[in-house]
Amino acid sequence: MLTGLLWLLGCQLVGQLVVDATGVPVPGPVIGMVLLLVVLVVRDPPGDSPVHRTADAVLPHLQLLFVPAGVGIVAYAGVLRDDLVAVLVALVGSWFLGLAVVGLLADRLGRRTRVVDAPDPGRGP
Question: Per the UniProt record, which residue ranges are transmembrane (predicted)?
Answer without folding.
Answer: 26-42, 62-79, 85-106
